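Final report, closing paragraph on structural work. Over the funding period we assembled a curated collection of sequence-structure pairs, and we close with a single example.
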Amino acid sequence: MLWPVTVMGALVGGLGGALPGALLGAVVGHALDRYWQLRRWRDLPIRLAELRTGPADFERVLFLCLGRLAKASGRVSQVHLQLARDLMQLYRLDEAACLRAMHDFNQGKTAADLRPLVRALRKREPARAAELLDSCWRMAVVPGQLSDEVRTLLADWAAEAGLAQSEQQRMHQRHQRTQAPPRSRSAVPRQDALRRAASLLKVDLADSPEVIKRAYRRQLSLHHPDKLAARGAGNVEQGNAGERIRQIQEAYELLRRHKGFR
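Its predicted structure, as stored:
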């Protein structure tokens, strides 16, 4: 383990006061390392970014970005607000966390540049960067058309999150299909999709909305990156967590619309 600020403090202190200065600098630096929870050099840029912009935890960055997208669409509508509330339920935020999320959503409307926070989130929780952008695309397609400002924001954040253009296109197309009104088509493919969605959530198509909601939350919890890490999952499984969560979300949306509940 290499404490970065400890090393820097020792070097700076040594330049100014030889051995006593180096010792004093190391002590002060070590205290800062412990306070900021810095254990590797790569942790330092993340902490510096957070000092400039605030903490880069997932929920904070998510709702800041959602608020920015809603405002960039031209007008924050009830549909935007409902989606934000749906995501609060999705992540099972308690009352205090919901209040923070609402504050972040409103603060995000006037946020100047959220790229440093997205970058810091990717470094802190790389498996959740794609999950962030997927929720952003859900918010972006709500008005039906993407403004130039919305497209620019999504492109900038995707670059910071390390998402390829092809992955962005898949997100766009998936959420456009979810928002689009139903079209006349054969019932067989739709039934197949419903059965696949039910299988993914481990429910039956005849189950009640309450059962489906509980199963949905259970599957999200099982595949949450933090839970996977706690269970000792490998890097590959943790890296696939974002894609699995998107599949679970898409399955739930399909069943929710089919059953007609919120």
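The chain has a mean pLDDT of 80. The chain has 14 helices and no strands. We thank the funder for supporting this effort.
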